[in-house]
Amino acid sequence: MKNKKYLFLSLLLGFSIFSIYPLQAREKTTFNEGWSFKKGPFPKDPLLFSAGFDSRWQDVTIPHTWNATDMQNEMNNYYAGEAYYKKEYTPAAELKGKRIFLRFQGVGSVAEVYVNKTYAGNHKGAYSAFAIEISKLLKYGQPNEILVKVDNSPRPDVIPINNTLFGVYGGIYRPVELIVTEAVNIAVTDYASPGVYISQKNINRKSADISIKVKLENKKAQAEKIQVSATVYEQDGKIKAQQQVPVIVSPQGRQICEQSFSIKNPHLWQGLEDPYLYKVVVNLITDGEVIDEVIQPLGLRHYELKAADGMYLNGKKVPMYGVCRHQDWWKLGSALTDKEHDTDLAIIKEMGATTIRFAHYQQAEHIYAKCDSIGFMIWAEVPFVNRVSTQEGDNAKQQLTELIRQNYNHPSIYIWGLHNEVYTPYNYTVALTTELNDLAKTEDPYRLTASVNGYSTVNQESNLNADVQGINHYFGWYGGKIGDIEKWVTGMEKDFPGYRVIFSEYGAEANIHQQEEVVGEVGRYFSQFYPETFSTKFHEIQWGVISKHPYLVASYIWNTFDFATPATAQGGVRARNMKGLVTFDRQTKKDPFYWYKANWSKEPVLYITQRRATERENEVTPVTVYCNVGTPQLFVNGVEIKTFKKGQTPVHYIFENVKLSNGENTIEAKVSNQGNMLEDTIRWNYSPENKNRLKLSDPKEKTKEHVGL
Questions:
Q1: Which residues, 6 or more positions from 524, have their beta carbon under 8 angstroms from its beta carbon?
Q2: pLDDT band at 23 (very low <50, low <70, confident <90, very high)
Q3: What is the 3 state secondary structure string of 351-389?
């Protein structure tokens, strides 16, 4: 009873990952400080390598990447190869007899771990976590050398097999943890998962059935009798449900303890509207003491994605306003802290998005947990993208297993992505994607799966092996005209009724330092001119069509943020993809950002477009205003312009035939909202001489399909 009371108090004070029995229960500590680093290339000759190995080390703190600048500044001019990290660790003498693990949240992309020059284990894949037990390799009470060899060279047997769509940043770029458990414990090395799997079914507002599966290990010489306690806590610390069962844990293999609960009158997880989370606490108890503890989130919800209709969350239809997100930041690469992840999610929430596709790889553990608490609906996927080598099958299965097991309990995840734009050789790819889908369904029969192609129809052979078909297409950018989206979606409705289709990528590049006053319906892909104004028109037209066609059960803008592409040099910037709605440094939100914020967000929006297209060449011009709280007033140099027309959606106001004066013009928009006056002001400079500026030829319409950049 006494121990139960203390356990309850510790949970009430914040559900600490540390048990109230620190000498008996699991201890998890950060392992990010005190590392040294050296980067290759290294001599191939073993003697030369050995002779120089002790020189040129530099002190670093994890997270760390060696590609924070070179992958972001030059086209195909960056270091991809071997590097080493080392750290000294002195375990306390009293830890002998316990189990000690190193858990790496992300290493790009192949890692080998050594303890005191003895091989401890390896991992292939830059984006999933891995855990290695080092208990028997340590000298207790003495200094030990932890050495990690890291290599981010592209390999045909490790996905992604190239750096074409995005660069694989090298390094220990996500946090490292040291985990200490008793000899009897909840599994740590089950693909670096929590070792606890919470399944749910029959979810409604009257009841919810959940099953909690716990994987147990025993490294003692004999079987051990323990109690497995599983408790579901409300947010205020009250117990919602609890069970405790006796288990005999054999020293041979792993055992599974499974407990079933029926929760009455559950508080459901309702996305952004009400992201209510329970806490599930699993304890192993022996002789009245807690010897291990794992805490996991529980959001009780039921997803149903209906063809030609949309998403129903707990029976309530919710909008699927989607964006994609790459994890890298300008000058940081992928070595991010929680602060950067939180900033990205805050920007995404500001614009009114409800769902995020974390493409094209497993992202940080922190960000999935934050999505649980914020209420985003998440598409999580593996980096099987762009090209096929025929050697990546085992690794693709490994990374899919890791993705699912490590993130199984996050209520925000509604779908697992199997691949993105992989095709030939078709026989191999079809067989592999079928195996990946079967694997996903075996690991998690409760969630949907998705496959994605870069063509304009669903009947691509390698893409019909999942529950949902994603289509990436960029009408007006990689091919055709912006307005071709209307013909495409109506054709899909006719030719492929009953399919669950997601518009998984669409967008156009936008360099905020490049502007063009009047744009057409074809962009200048593969050029050095990516005006922001073209992207604005692109998104206005495309969202206008998407919003009217529920056949597309969800859509995802590519991309929320500009990101590094080491293989390209377009739009006047090297190694940069500028399809983001926000600049790489997160400092500037482009015009299309506010287009979506006005259409999606419940926050009041009043915004005048083309604020960076300041040098005007046309004396008579339209002015576009986004406003979601009623009809705005527009003033040009203090004179109200009263004539306007509606554009693609109800928030789209176009004031036509506005006459500018020579020199500076002040453009003001105003609207009253609940007693408050919203205002926005920009300034344009008009001169007839601007017509004499360098003119670019009109872009030609392209017919090729999306090429995968």
A1: 530, 534, 696, 699
A2: very low
A3: CCCCEEEECCCCCCHHHHHHHHHHCCEEEEECCCECCCC
**Three-state DSSP state, 100:** strand
On the question of pLDDT at 17 being above 50, the answer is no
- 365: tokens are 């553990």
Residue written as token pair 């002190």: 59
Report the phi/psi class of residue 664: left, alpha or beta, with left for phi > 0 and alpha for psi in -120 to 50. beta
The pLDDT tens digits for 672-696 are: 999 999 999 999 999 988 776 555 6
Phi-psi region of 222 (alpha: psi -120 to 50; beta: other; left: phi over 0): beta
Distance, first Cα to last Cα, the chain: 61
Residue 6 has pLDDT above 60, yes or no: no
Which residues in 641-671 are b (16+ Cβ under 10 Å) and which e? beebeebbbebbbbbeebebeeeebebbbbb
Catalytic residues, by residue number, are: 421
Bridge partners, residue 659, by sequence: 620
pTM: 0.95
| CA count, 13 A, side-chain hemisphere, 538 | 32
Buried b (16+ CB within 10 A) or exposed e, 585-617: ebeebbbbbbbbbbbbbeeebbbbbbbbbeebb
pLDDT digits (tens, 9 = 90+) for 648-658: 999 999 999 99
Spell out a b/e string for 257-274, using b for 16 or more CB atoms within 10 Å of the CB, else e.
bebebebeebbbbbbbee
Pick from 288, 289, 294, 286: which is nearest to 230 by CA? 294
> What is the phi-psi region of residue 687: left when phi exceeds 0, alpha when psi lies from -120 to 50, beta otherwise?
beta
Nearest to 597 by CA among 355, 351, 354: 351
Beta strands in 105-223 (DSSP E): 107-108, 110-115, 118-124, 130-133, 144-151, 171-172, 176-181, 184-186, 196-201, 207-218
Burial (CB count within 10 angstroms: exposed 0-12, middle 13-18, buried 19+), residue 414: buried
Report helix, strand or coil for 296.
strand
Task: Give the separation between CA 577 and CA 559, rounded to whole angstroms.
Answer: 9
69-97 per-position pLDDT tens digit: 999 998 999 999 999 999 999 999 999 99
Helix H or strand E encompassing 620: strand 620-627
The residue to which tokens 């191939």 are assigned: 44
Report whether 113 contacts 84 (CB < 8 A): no
CA distance 274 to 615: 46
Helix, strand, or coil here: 7?
A: helix
Cis, bond preceding 41 (omega within 30 deg of 0): yes
